[in-house]
């Protein structure tokens, strides 16, 4: 007995569902996204977990699948997410998908009221009666139940229409048990972006991924490389996108993917509440995801003019739609950067940027002529002239080393790379100065983390100062939900 | 029918083990002082338990602790911690304890290599039938990564030498299950400081607690009040130590207990490595919190605070920023002040806003080059990475003498100020109907990039209620913003009749 179907293999993005500002399905943006991924994928999955199926009405889910089917118009298989909590609704929606022309359905284990495994088994047995090929979907992070291998094996072998299993747990021993039990009979798909390459190498038939919205081309390369036995290439690309996909998987994937797409210029709105910007996908994740997309060439450079009051400097920076094309107000700019973990090694940089003959430059000269040495201030860079200010009393030799060597090196690296990437263009290096208030926790130990975190915090602080982030709109949207970690007693 | 031990009830401190700095030798003198400190309010002692860092002690050191405990206990029972990963070692420790005069052994579920339920039963069975010493079983899943299964306890309770069980899980469903199944045969002790009262009310015989060496008097009272059915009073006492108990249980264990004892004048030295006295499980911020709570409990004296809220002409309060009334007038700066809250939660905010090009821009930058003078400025943020606009500094007017005070500024004051600013920012946006909201104290859009602000905050040095403080700061800052952004620019508010 071979595979139940031939088409279920390769890379399938778990499509996000775009919503308009007034919270309706944004059909136009959805089609644009589908056109963006289509050249690189073997199929698409509308209304999966990343598609926020759990925040959509049945009518919206149906409409999204219809729009997807229309846009794809038969070029690749469309696997519709039709899982619901109750068997009755799941069967009804799967029947609808069958009639609408979907190639198959992705059906999540029923969640919230945690049914036992025999109840889960009978749920899928009922779905099997519909007659539409379907994929059993294991995602314990969300559903709260992790398929037992014997349940999965039983369903894969007994149910005629169960053509595949998607495992998003990232639990490779579980996947290995699946290869042992049912490889070659049903398609085994990996759904955890951090372990795609090892899963494919071990025998997975394909991948359904959130990050395949952003980098479908990379995953197609990984998939093909593994098919051709070129593990070195596959490993290279997995490693290259590892940080990007870790951010996506662990930091509120729907919002992370949407913000990533937006940075790349696709007109995609935010997730539906209670997922929100600045929530699971934090501001520091935004900066890191952006850097990763820049590195992969997904965000392009654009010309920007810096207006230094009478003199204009042209530069090119990796621009998102949020990046102003003219930046002025160099008298005084404020940017804050924050990076962790871990707690004791986290970096918090309060950055001032401004003209040398303005408040920033004058403050540097005055402090260095006065209390600078006594209070541990240090000029760590001349172009741009940069003053490092410790915000915690330095008492021990270890603190001294962590601050003046590692944190300082981190700040300088942030500056160097900002010069390289155009945000600090050569033309302003003699005109502006920086003041970096840097915090190193007295209990910090891991020197390299202090360095990396300060590098990240500085690089992000520079960009935030220049781009004027957070915006007034962001502040207002998040003011009620903001949670300062030190606001509460232990 | 098994016979229970008559003395096995009441309050037992799980003593820390004091060490000499540098050498890490056991500090026997300090141990004796600690015992003398607790003895009047306890019914017995527990040596080398989890709080006593037993995994870091040699067999001989553990024996010595029992010897000293018996010498100092004045006839009260000493329960010796005899926990070990292997059965053989646990037996050796229990033998030592018996010879040293211990009244019972406290033996933890075997750990690291996870034995099966059968293995766990056999472990306790072997000890109980080899050494003639009463045994208290010990469930502490937080460090063992597993529970002592109830069914195993049920069977062990039939052995004559098994006399009790200490449950440190804090999981009252487990405690209740044990009471249901074995309290007719053995005594159940609560080992989780946060749930002492409910456990006592539920029927446990006593407590073995880390915090029973910090406030044994409180626990002794709770124990007696529950016995007398005076639950109202017992609740009030439990609540008075709830936060400290939580800190001991979750944020530092024995390390936090040592920090508390040191503040009370009992120096027990540092923990053995790899534990750190601060910066590991116990972070600096939490240590400051312990001091606050000990002050509240009256275990350490409170320094009187002598200070004043700024008064007099508002335009003259910004001298620290080198901003004079003349400069305020010349550069048409905005000033406003607000006061809110009562007693320790009273807060005053004196706020100034002005163009980045004015001397206020210079003051803003200069403040951030002037650290470590006791009242450093910090940026107003809603939360890390959400800096408000216009850029605003928070400058405490009183010296920040310790982290305890700083904890009230970082966080509660900082985010409340930020919130008030964003509220004023929202009020200043053009409304849907076109005009600006017309709300008093709105920040106009032009100020977002063009101006900076500095808020002088006077917070009571002994403030300790973060929630109340947040409300006060928010109210005071809202008033200050209202005054600054609705009055005339460049002068003392209220000097001109409002239109």
If strands are numbered along the chain, what order do they take across the biggest sheet of chain A?
1-7-6-5-4-3-2
Beta percentage of chain A is: 15-25%
Helix content of chain A: 40-55%
Enumerate the spans of chain B where pLDDT stays under 50 for 5 or more consecutive residues.
432-438
Describe this structure in words.
The complex is a heterodimer of chains A (490) and B (499). With 490 residues, chain A is α/β, with parallel strands linked by helices. Helices cover 41% and strands 17% of the residues of chain A. Chain A has helices spanning 27-37, 58-72, 87-100, 117-128, 140-143, 149-158, 172-182, 196-202, 216-227, 231-240, 242-250, 253-263, 283-295, 359-369, 397-420, 447-467, 472-478, and strands at residues 10-13, 79-81, 104-108, 134-138, 162-167, 187-190, 206-209, 301-307, 312-318, 326-327, 333-339, 347-355, 378-382, 385-390, 432-439. Chain A is elongated and about 80 Å long. Chain B is α/β, with parallel strands linked by helices and 499 residues long. Chain B folds into two domains: 10-297, Aldolase class I (TIM Barrel, Alpha-Beta Barrel); 314-486, Formaldehyde-activating enzyme (Ribosomal Protein S5, domain 2), CATH 3.30.230. In chain B, 41% of the residues lie in helices and 13% in strands. Chain B contains 18 helices and 13 strands. Chain B has an eight-stranded parallel β-sheet with strand order 1-8-7-6-5-4-3-2. Chain B has a five-stranded mixed β-sheet with strand order 9-10-13-12-11, sandwiched between helices. In chain B, helix 3 packs parallel to helix 4, helix 11 packs across helix 12 and helix 16 packs across helix 18 (466-486). Chain B is elongated, with a radius of gyration of 30 Å.
Give the arrangement of secondary structure elements.
The complex is a heterodimer of chains A (490) and B (499).
Chain A: E1 10-13, H1 27-37, H2 58-72, E2 79-81, H3 87-100, E3 104-108, H4 117-128, E4 134-138, H5 140-143, H6 149-158, E5 162-167, H7 172-182, E6 187-190, H8 196-202, E7 206-209, H9 216-227, H10 231-240, H11 242-250, H12 253-263, H13 283-295, E8 301-307, E9 312-318, E10 326-327, E11 333-339, E12 347-355, H14 359-369, E13 378-382, E14 385-390, H15 397-420, E15 432-439, H16 447-467, H17 472-478
Parallel strand pairs in A: 1-7, 2-3, 3-4, 4-5, 5-6, 6-7, 8-10, 14-15
Antiparallel strand pairs in A: 8-9, 11-12, 12-15, 13-14
Helix pairs in contact in A: 1-2, 2-3, 3-4, 4-6, 6-7, 8-9, 8-10, 9-10, 11-12, 11-13, 12-13, 15-16
Chain B: E1 10-13, H1 28-38, E2 45-47, H2 59-72, E3 78-81, H3 87-100, E4 104-108, H4 117-130, E5 135-139, H5 141-144, H6 150-156, E6 162-167, H7 172-182, E7 187-190, H8 196-202, E8 206-209, H9 216-227, H10 231-240, H11 242-250, H12 253-263, H13 284-297, H14 325-330, E9 334-340, E10 347-355, H15 359-367, E11 378-379, E12 392-396, H16 403-428, H17 445-450, E13 451-459, H18 466-486
Parallel strand pairs in B: 1-8, 2-3, 3-4, 4-5, 5-6, 6-7, 7-8, 12-13
Antiparallel strand pairs in B: 9-10, 10-13, 11-12
Helix pairs in contact in B: 1-2, 2-3, 3-4, 4-6, 8-9, 9-10, 11-12, 12-13, 16-18
